Amino acid sequence: MAHRGDSFLLVMPTSRFSTIHDWRVVPNRPVIERALGHARRAYGDLSAPHYHFFGWALEEDPYVELVAELSIDFTVRDTTDVHGSDVCFTYSLTKGTELWICRFSAVGPFALVYRLLQNDRGLVVHRSDVLSDVRALPPHEARLLTIIASRGLELLDPDVVETLVNFSPVNDTSPAPLYQVLYSDDEIPWM
Question: Model pTM?
Fold first, then answer.
């Protein structure tokens, strides 16, 4: 549930931020409320978060069955940054020459999936490469998202993970994008 003191900033397409003071008009409000509820249980105080939960999640390995299922259709490599700034399980998946990054949050049942594309500067990701809807996707990408969703994970889109919330990550100040709450203190890959 949202608390009266919560305020949100939304990332606008121009990369400018605008304050939303009326909680009722925030797009994707139910998703953000769920994510913040999980975040409060995981971190405790979001203005002074504790990261102990990630160590416990690493011991439990909650996504081992999901990864085994993905390994049937894709080549899967664990790229989780266990000593860095991640609070998620990160996997690179390949099929032929295609490459995807899957981030499964240790905060709650949230996934972020995006394609990596090769260009003259190396591997890059664009905002439009975030996959959250199976419609109009090639069959293997639709299969990837279907497997993830079948395990109870909510696939998040850029609008949700770019939303700024009252959270003070270790290396930054509040507000922070929901991406940093659910996945990593690093910058959002496509920004």
Answer: 0.85
